[in-house]
Amino acid sequence: MGGRRLRCASPACLLLAVAAVVLAMPSLAGARTRRYTFNVTMATVTRLCVTKSIPTVNGRFPGPKIVVREGDRLVVQVHNNINNNVTFHWHGVRQLRSGWADGPSFITQCPIRPGQSYAYDFRIVGQRGTLWWHAHFSWLRATLYGPLVILPPRGVPYPFPKPHREVPLMLGEWFNADPEAVVREALRTGGGPNVSDAYTFNGLPGPTYNCSAADTFKLKVRPGRTYMLRLVNAALNDELFFAVANHTLTVVQADANYVKPFAATTLVISPGQTIDVLLTAAAAPSAPAFAIAVAPYTNTVGTFDNTTASAVLEYAPTRPAAARSLPLPALPLYNDTSAVANFSANFRSLASAEYPARVPTAVDRKFFFAVGLGTDPCQSRVNGTCQGPNGTRFAASMNNVSFVMPRTTSLLQAHYQRRYAGVLMANFPAAPQRPFNYTGAPPNNTFVSHGTRVVPLRFNTTVEVVLQDTSILGAESHPLHLHGYDFFVVGQGFGNYDAANDTARYNLVDPVQRNTISVPTAGWVAIRFVADNPGVWLMHCHLDVHLSWGLSMAWLVNDGPRPNQKLPPPPSDIPRC
């Protein structure tokens, strides 16, 4: 009987066979189509005693929470009712063969113009945890953002004790001015932009700011219960320290990937990153309420928002004291790079039988990207000069190439149609053309080149990228985000990367898997990924000021040989340029 083959020819038999396959795959069993509608409208909001009109989704700030399960199809119908162009990015979603839904303007789509609509349609494959969505046009994400929660398939537990409650906590920035006016003025003058006026918890600044005691986020807990905080750094331009006074947090996820749990009293989270932590309320709390606080981490030579925002952890059923009187948790100094390095060193993939770490051990192509700021000549003077270093204009680059955004079509459309001329060049340098002491004395010439240059990759190429910070205009951390992929962080360190010695210390067993990683101040980080998702994928600094100055590049991943390895045609409603 072992060699006998059973025939299944009837429609009913075939249907049962397909059902059996689906049920054998937890990520597809019970999968649903979840539909949301985003009406982008202006709404009047008051913070810090300043009332102004801001772009919102459905009149809410922050925007609505999206909840899906692993394996679900998500359809978000966007109607643009404001006077700005807009696109939306589903930050961290792999977008397997659905690059048309990724969202960065002029990369995977042309913007949604005022009065137009577009349906983002994609499936959540092999991911669970906290991600988020945000606008990806100019600086509109200052107010257009919200959480994207991916639950495991039904019946699949977390690899840690189930919390009593789960709370998304969006960490943001508030500008009294219009952020669009802020970036326009910075690009006009060539100088650094004006900084934000406050940090926020779910849109609320809290009692450390002027007339904001009533605008305080409060997390109510019960003694002895465990809560999962789904943390997202949605700030435009600042990495943030985070702590809860008198409480230890347990980190369990990063960028929708499970990690080996570890305890921490202070976290650091970069723009674009998500971290899920467990907070166990004390059985016998020493006070009825405790402060939650965020403050910036930076080594910038320019100005920054050096303020601290606070929220409140309230124990039920006691009535807490006034939020303003709560002592803040002790946070590191704003430039404490060692605290950041010590925290970052704790992250390890779960690397279990259920959630293995499939780290590429062999590499097909290696890249070395020098990342940092630079300058442009002052060609269009404002009041007789430009406001960048020594009368120049600020710029930013990778391998001295400052990215130029196309304006007549999207890169993905050009790639799909194979019409590259006048749109892009497939010659982004694999390493700096002129190597120098990246973290030492800066070179005499700080001018950058410009271009829409991409790296073409064959399907299934295994890639290693070393991202090296530079001190051209002062060393600082750069949170780099890769669209369309997760990557493994196989190594990091300070100083200049040394292939002869640093490669031998790579972690190829259980490195953390992320979609956004901060290049250490005056240091380097090495990542690996397999280019198994066809399309055009942006990689950029998630400090929007640096993105505006050109700190980005793109990977052009070609189709594979099989039908399920090819980029499908664009949807019929995709916006036109």
Tell me about this structure:
With 577 residues, the chain is mainly beta. It is 8% helix and 37% strand. The chain starts with 10 loop residues before the first helix and ends in a 20-residue tail after the last strand. Residues 1-27 have low confidence and may be disordered.
Describe the structure concisely for a colleague:
This protein is mainly β and 577 residues long. The chain is built from six helices and 32 strands. It has a six-stranded mixed β-sheet with strand order 10-9-12-17-14-15, with no helix packed on it. A six-stranded mixed β-sheet has the order 21-20-25-30-27-28. The protein has a five-stranded mixed β-sheet with strand order 11-19-18-13-16.
Q: State the strand order across the main sheet.
A: 10-9-12-17-14-15
Rg over CA atoms, rounded to whole Å, is 24 Å
Mean pLDDT: 94
Class based on secondary structure composition and strand pairing: mainly beta
Helical fraction equals under 10%
How much β-strand is present in the residues?
Answer: 35-45%
Poorly predicted regions: 1-27
Largest sheet: 6 strands, mixed
Number of strands: 32
> Which of globular, elongated, flat, extended, rod-shaped describes the shape?
globular
| Distance between the first and last residues' Cα | 63 Å
Task: Supply the number of helical segments.
Answer: 6
